[in-house]
Amino acid sequence: MIPSEAEYVIVGGGTGGNVVAARLAEAGKDVLVLEAGPDFGPQGDPAWPSDIVDATRLGTSYDWGYDSGSTYPWTVGFERARAIGGSSDFNGCTQTWGHRRDYDSWAESGLTGWGTEDLLPLFQAGTERMRVKLYTADELTPWQHAWYDAAPAVGMPRIADLNDMDEAAGFAPEAVNIQDGVRVNTAFAYLDAARHLPNLTIVGDALVDRVIIENGRATGVVVHHRGEVVTVRGGTIVLAGGAYNSPTVLLRSGIGSFAHLAPLEIPLVHHLPGVGENLHDQPFLLMSWAGSENMTADMTAARAAGWAPDEQAMGKRASSFDTEAFDLHFLPYSPTHAAERKRWSVGTSALQPRSRGFVRLKSTDPEAKPWIDHRFLADPEGIDVRVLAEGAEILRELAATPELASLVGAEIHPGPDTLVPEALRAHLYRNPDNYWHPVGTCRLGTADDPMAVVDARAQVHGIEGLRIADASIMPQIPRATTAMPSVVMGEKVAQMLCEESA
Q1: pLDDT, tens digit, 9 for 90 and up, residues 42-53
Q2: Which co-factors does it depend on (predicted)?
Q3: 427, 414 in Cβ contact below 8 A?
C-alpha cells in the first residue's frame, strides 16, 4: 500500500536517495521512498541475493538492463541495480574521494557551498556511515601486492591511503565499504538505522513515471505499483534515480528540450535543454596477462585461506595532459568467482574525459529503455583516447619491470598487435568500455548557464519543490570512483533540506 501523500517523496532508493531519506527521517520529517525494484528488507534478511551481498565479486541481480543498444556494432553494458540500495548493490566497494581541484572548480563556477572544504565533513560522515575500512598492505592478495610493490618504478609511490585530496600520485591499499565480507550498500548503512521510525515508509516495486507540476511547482508523482497507476502527493519531491533515470523522469514530466519532447508528443511543461545532456563516464581499458605458475600457486593458496576479493589496491597518476593533479587510475583485478577461467588483469581509466553524450527517451513508457550514448572517446581533439593509451603504456612499463615480469607473464589483451601507438589507439576506438561511473545529466549550474538543470540548492531551475540528489547533478566527474561522491550528493541535499525546514 502506497501512502497518498508525504512531506518528502524520494524517487529512488539508491545510493543518493537512501542517504536523503534516512537523514530526513532521522530529523523527524515525514518521508516516503519509492523504489522501482524490490525492497529486500534489512541487512541479514534471506531475501537479499547472494551476489549483491558478497563483497568478493560484482553484483548482477536485478539489473536495469541498460546498454549501448545500437550505438556501436557491439553492446556495452551499463549495469545499474534495480533494487533497494541502487548501484551501491553492484559496486566494487572501492571508496575514493578524488582531488581538491574537482570540487573547488565547482565552487569557482559560482556554485556556493560545493567546494572541497564545504564537502569534506560530508565525505567523512559518509565514510563513517558506510563502515569504510582501509586495507593494510599485509592484507593484499599476491596479485594485488605484486603491483603495489612495483608501482614506484613508474612514479606511483606506495602510500597508505588514496583519499588525501591534496595528493597527486601514489599506489595504495583501497578503502572499502566491506564488513565481514558483506558489501555495505546504502540500504544497510543508512536506511536500516531508520526503518523503525514511524515517519519513514519504504515502498518497493514502485516505478515513478513522472512528476506532477502545477503552477510551476512539483506537487506529486505518478507511480506504477504492482499493476496499478497511483498518484502520490508530496511537499517536496527529490529525484534520486541516477544519471540514467533522473533525466528520463524529468523528460516524461515535460521538463527538458522541446525538440526532444515534441516527437513523443509530451507536452512541454518547462524548457530546460540541459536535461539528459552532459552524460559522461570515465573510459576504461582492462588489460590482461597470461600469469605464471608462481602467481597461480600463490593466488590459489590465498583463495584457499579465505578472503581473496577481486579488488584491493589502486594507483593514481597524471598523464601528460594533467598538470594540476592526476587523471589516471590503475586497478589490479583478479576475479575469484571465475577461477576456472583465470584472468590476470589490471584496468586503467581516464578520469577527466572531455567527451560528452546524452540520455534521451525512446518512448513515454516508463519501462522502456532510454537511448544512452556516452560517445566515449569522441572529443574532437582526441585527448581522451591519448590519455587512456598513456595509461596502457604505463601498465606495460610496469609489467616489464623485474619485480613483475616473471609473475605476470606475457600480455594477452590488448596484446602484441597493439604495441604501435596508432594500433593501440585504433583498438581503443574500436572497443570502448566504461568505468561504471555515469554522471552529469542534470548538472549543477547557475541561472545564467543555459545547460544547467539544478541550482546550487539542487533545485530544478524554474520548478519549485523539485530537487535532485544523485550523480546526475555532478557538472564534471571527479577524479574518483563515484560511489562516495554520490553518497556526498545525498548528504549535501539532505543537509540543505534540513536547514531550510529548521
Answers
A1: 999 999 999 999
A2: FAD
A3: yes
